[in-house]
Write a structure and sequence with these properties.
The chain is α+β, with helices and mostly antiparallel strands and 170 residues long. The protein is built from five helices and six strands. The protein has two domains: 104 residues, no CATH class; 38 residues, no CATH class. Helices cover 25% and strands 22% of the residues. It has a four-stranded antiparallel beta sheet, with no helix packed on it. The protein has a two-stranded antiparallel ribbon with strand order 1-2.
Length: 170
Amino acid sequence: MNDFTNDIAKRTHAAKAPGFVEITVEELVVYRFIVPADADDPEGVALDRFRSGDLPDRGPSEGEQHDLSTYFVGDAEPLPPHSYDDWLATYRPVRNPYRADTPCDGLMFETFGPEMEAVQAANSACVWTLVAGDDDALVILSGMHLANRLGYFITEFLWPGEDVVEIPLD
């Protein structure tokens, strides 16, 4: 094994999933109900109307500004990337040191030779495969695949999921 292959094996076997947390963002929306002033419980009457699905008499008012509140919910499992750009930013593929002119801005590894040795030495959860999908559309799949493969990627962060993720290459 060469230096890069040894390095990639060490780095990816120590790799972790990208860290995510769940945050709730709430915005106050004000609905206004016109209720009789002499009602025993005007607030209760308005609340009953709201709960029963009555449309408010006024509001939400145009141009009203309400503060946003955020709440920390806790740690969250990573969601599958929804686009190639999201995948790049989240999983951070490493550059191919063997050839600067490889596809995908120098990030793809070939399916043979020292490049393939580096892919095989990497943590399998850090390996992604570029394949020709339906109608020759290019797709990146999590994991190492052989059918219709065009090349591989090795990422700094691993995909922790059991299911294969498909990311269309835009």
